[in-house]
Amino acid sequence: MVLAGGLAAAVAFTHCAGRPLPEDIAADLIFYNGKIITVDSNFSIASALAVKDDKFLTLGQDNDILSWAGSSTRTVDLQGKTVTPGFIDAHIHAIRASGNTVSLEETRSVAEILEVFREKVQQTPEKTWIGAFPFMSVDQIEEGRLPTRWELDSVSPNHPVFVFYHGHLVATNSLALQEAGISRATTPQKWVIKDPDTGEPNGWLLEDLGGRILRFFPRGGLEETMEEVRRMSRDLNAVGITGVIQQLGGTTTGRNFRALEQLRKEGELTLRWRLNYSLPPATPDDRIQEAIGNLGPPTGYGNEWLRIGGLGELSLDGWWEPMDTAYLREPYEGSYSRQQGKGDLRFSIDRLRAICLAAAENDIQMSVHVAGSAALDEVLNVYDEVDQLSPIASKRWTLEHGGFLPTPRNLEQAKRLGVIVSTQQSISYFVPRALREMLGERRASSLFPNRTWLEGGIMVAGGSDFPGSPLSPLLGMYASVTRKTAIGELGPEEAISRQEALKLYTTYAAHISFEEDLKGSIEPGKLADFVVLSDDLLTVPEEQIKDIEVLMTVVGGKVVYER
Known about the structure:
- This protein is an alpha/beta fold.
- It has three domains: 2-80, Roll (Urease, subunit C, domain 1); 99-214, Diaminopimelate Epimerase, Chain A, domain 1, CATH 3.10.310.70; 222-552, TIM Barrel, CATH 3.20.20.
- Helix content is 30%, strand content 22%.
- The protein contains 19 helices and 27 strands.
- The strands form five sheets. An eight-stranded parallel β-sheet has the order 9-16-17-18-19-20-21-22. Strands 4-3-8-25-26-27 form a six-stranded mixed β-sheet, with helices on one face. Strands 10-11-12-13-15-14 form a six-stranded mixed β-sheet, sandwiched between helices.
- Helix 3 (110-122) packs across helix 4, helix 7 packs across helix 8 and helix 17 (473-482) packs across helix 18.
């Protein structure tokens, strides 16, 4: 039996005296008769655990742990169920745009997308913006694409509408284009997709031009953002998530941080938030040092509920599907934008170098979005250059997504520089057809090459990139272990073990935030964040991993979800 802190002597004295445990020593909560996967350094297994206040007090076998019960202790018979550390999503966009939106998650064709907008238009005053920020995949759409401006016009001629797809493609109607001032002459031309016959924009905007549309979309205020956090927290807790790293979180004076801080003060947070800074894309090159210096406190500021993360995700390149804007070493095999190239960078390497150097000098962790293989080369080279001026090996900088086909040089650099790769395997589960069409089998099979990174000595953390894929960490683990997709396998040589997959969403994710001594495993003295599962993740048939149910989620010793 393992004990926390200096309680061992006090407990021994009480037991020897034959007296019941006093309330200041007794556990508040005991779970017993289960299989507790601790994910400690030995991957130890226990049958019971005890919680005191918000931390694990002790764990071991049933009789030993039950002896910690006092008159007020709540005991839970697990009836053989499995317990793991709470899951941490290392890359998520959990706080999305509040405002006048529709859901497209259940749509399966362009016609169904249009019908959703048609119904919303009928309930909305003219000229009012309507947006969609869905989890969806072009693979799930019968036509394999989003609606064009003219199709959206047919159901919404008097309302500006758009679909925001994965942050790299926005499909809009004519009124939205007009209000944003986007025409066939708008630059950069490569980000305005045009009808091949007329040369007119077809409503599909790539990268920063899609972001321009968002500037015209009315967003909710502080109260709306707080309600969005509450709603998302319920959804996250329901799939076993006890902590997240929110990408593009803004600044400490922004709406996201203020909403989270207010909820923290009111005791309403039910998971632990790490908020990454955003750097406005319009920041002039000669103001980068000043802008980063003024972002706010350095990485790690805060407490166990709300903490400042790094700067990111800073998107150096775009995405693979269906936008072909990720920066590759070799040309795409298919092209959604009909540009038939290798993709491109969203800004210059000189700018990336300046941002990274300023971050290093201000003790801010860097998290750079890397989707393409050539972008992977560029980012690691910049990290290497910055390291010569301001060492970063202890700063745990990350590669978000991590590209594909890492070279021996990539692996050597990442290991030497202490880089952590943040991957989102469940994305591949939903878009295998599009990935194969865009990249070809060899490159598509190497997306999220977790086995290669781990064998190269590089730590890998897991996430969802929600709304890019569903929230479920168990789906991510399933895809990482089997490399299966909705329509077959994709890169089985990159499969990892169940134990490794669990670490991606627990200890390794905690390592990104320098909190591996605080959370990520079930050990005395650590925060009591854990989940109860319907089945044993380590022994259930592989195909059933994705179907395991979360029965209970506990954060800081408090039950925040129960099925």
